[in-house]
Design goal:
63% helix, two-stranded antiparallel sheet, mainly alpha, binds ligand NDX
């Protein structure tokens, strides 16, 4: 643990994430972007989805990447460097890059989502700034891992889940993108991959990712973020499922909201 580690911002940040997750469940309403944008935010000022996702996810990548680049290599031990690298990799993809064959794709450039309310963009930006700082600060200044952490089952299993979840998330977001031609904003029934079993396949992948990250880093901030993701994306999967059942008479009856065969 570095002399620069202050426990209070770590505890406050983790408590805030946990409280936000609980608030999401308490409100039980979908966030008013995407499918719910027109109903819940009819008069909102909006930005194109691509610009909105680019701007709001920027700090999630830039802050931890800046912390990673700024540290003398002696301060950040190898496990913390790998963990912070994984966090940056997720947001590098989300923010900017999804490398496929010889072309470079940009999630925010590729998204075919509907315009995004600016008020949510602002809140999303603040969220990403706070969370990026919390995870980066903790790993850079507070985390201490023994030399044998690489061979610890928590690290190996956690990294495995992280990579598995990221694969599911990227593949599922790809399936969703293919449902629309450029310029369309209609909804179709997603098919294939884990969408065969659940309506929120992209969310399931992302939740697995952050549970894996929490396991591998064995830290309070990562656990709090996994909890938030579970609440926020779990509820969003539930609302998407209900939306599809209302919208499509032929929606597959055996499909669940988030957990195959169960929920
Ligand atoms: N960004 C995480 N709450 C969020 C921004 C908004 O990364 O104040 C949480 C994140 C933030 C939110 C963030 C936190 C909570 C905030 C909220 C704003 C208000 C809220 C701050 C930071 C708040 C309280 C009050 C509690 C404080 O037109 P469209 O857009 O629907 O098109 C969609 C399309 N699509 C389809 N196309 C054709 N046919 C269909 N059937 C389709 N279904 C969907 O696919 C989109 O273009 C695209 C994906 O849509 P959707 O709805 O499946 O996913 P989406 O929610 O847009 O997430 C996109 C990806 C996904 O991989 C997800 O896992 C990840 O981002 N994500 C998203 C949100 C949070 C998060 C990850 C996390 O917590 N880890």
């Amino acid at each position: 643990m570095s002399a620069r580690c202050q426990q209070s911002p770590v505890l406050a940040g983790s408590a805030t994430l946990t409280a936000l997750g609980a608030l999401v469940l308490y409100l039980a309403k979908p966030s008013g972007y995407g499918k719910y944008s027109e109903n819940l935010m009819p008069a909102a000022v909006r930005l194109p989805a691509r610009a909105a996702w680019f701007l709001q996810e920027l700090p999630s990548f830039a802050v931890p990447a800046g912390i990673l680049a700024w540290q003398p290599s002696s301060l950040l031990g190898p496990p913390a460097t790998v963990l912070l690298g994984l966090f940056c990799a997720h947001y590098f993809h989300r923010w900017i890059l999804n490398h496929k064959t010889t072309r470079t794709f940009v999630y925010s450039v590729l998204t075919r989502g509907r315009p995004f309310p600016v008020v949510f963009l602002f809140r999303g930006f603040v969220f990403c700034l706070g969370n990026g700082f919390l995870q980066g600060y903790y790993l850079a200044y507070c985390a201490e891992y023994p030399a044998e952490w690489y061979t610890d089952i928590r690290f190996s299993l956690g990294v495995f889940l992280f990579i598995l979840g990221m694969g599911i998330n990227i593949h599922s977001d790809y399936i969703l993108r293919q449902l629309r031609k450029p310029g369309e904003i209609i909804y179709r029934i997603p098919q294939g991959g884990l969408f065969t079993y659940v309506s929120g396949a992209n969310f399931l992948g992302e939740i697995i990712e952050w549970i894996g990250y929490a396991l591998a880093s064995w830290s309070l901030p990562a656990l709090a973020f996994a909890f938030f993701s579970l609440c926020f994306l779990g509820l969003r999967a539930f609302h998407h499922h209900r939306f599809y059942l209302k919208m499509f008479d032929d929606y597959p009856k055996s499909r669940r909201a988030l957990i195959p065969f169960i929920f």
